[in-house]
Design a protein that fits this description.
- The chain is an alpha+beta fold.
- The protein has one domain: Roll (Nuclear Transport Factor 2, Chain: A).
- The protein contains five helices and six strands.
- Strand 5 and strand 6 form a beta hairpin.
- It starts with a helix and ends in a 41-residue tail after the last helix.
């Protein structure tokens, strides 16, 4: 009887520990998805203080938005999110004007925690509707891209560590992506990148943005 009871207690303790680990993992993934969704909402009107508040202050952080270059370190990332530097088509305005619109919706998210539960990787589609200055006039844009991001947990709070967004299309709504697959924002001259992009390509290149995960069925 005593031996059987000890085995049952040991089994129960092991089960509780496994459940605690699974619950923590589920809470971590949910927190990362909330972080990503919050980022999307702040982009709508380019609330730069809120956007940069989502980031770790580590020197290891980095930002790549399609083909604009690699920005390495917190200060470089912070400067990149300044409205006047990022959207030069608005003639150096410090905040987004009322007619500006940048709806970028994260969807189809896949989040994987790394061993230890302190870092993670995630992939999302970003569906885009915008009203942006292009060629000296306000244009309605439609687009889609893919995020492959990395996250870090600091003092119990998940933050961005690395963000890479690869545009698939960014097209004038009246022309469509077959006629005009990509309409780039004018480059900013006063925020030179730390280095070149690691990779980026638009439709119709056939480029497949690398997955951070293995096939969930085959493991390949």
């Amino acid at each position: 009887m005593a031996v059987d009871l000890e085995k049952e207690v040991k089994t129960l303790k092991e089960t509780v520990k496994k459940l605690e680990t699974r619950i923590q993992a589920a809470e971590d993934i949910e927190a990362i998805k909330k972080l990503m969704n919050a980022y999307g909402y702040y982009l709508e009107h380019w609330q730069e203080d809120q956007i940069i508040g989502l980031w770790s202050h580590s020197d290891e952080v980095s930002l790549e938005i399609h083909d604009t270059g690699l920005y390495k370190g917190f200060e470089a990332v912070k400067k990149s999110f300044q409205f006047k530097d990022h959207y030069t088509g608005f003639n150096g305005e410090k905040t987004a004007p009322p007619e500006y619109l940048h709806i970028l919706i994260p969807n189809a998210g896949i989040v994987d925690l790394d061993a230890g539960g302190k870092t993670a990787k995630g992939r999302w589609y970003g569906s885009f509707l915008g009203a942006l200055q292009r060629g000296g006039k306000l244009r309605a844009l439609i687009g889609c891209g893919i995020w492959e991001n990395e996250f870090v947990k600091e003092d119990g709070i998940w933050k961005f560590k690395k963000l890479f967004f690869n545009d698939i299309i960014s097209s004038p709504l009246d022309e469509g992506w077959v006629k005009t697959p990509y309409l780039a924002n004018p480059p900013a001259n006063d925020r030179p990148p730390s280095g070149p992009n690691t990779h980026a390509a638009t439709y119709p290149s056939g480029y497949i943005f690398p997955y951070h995960y293995k096939n969930p069925v085959t493991g390949k």
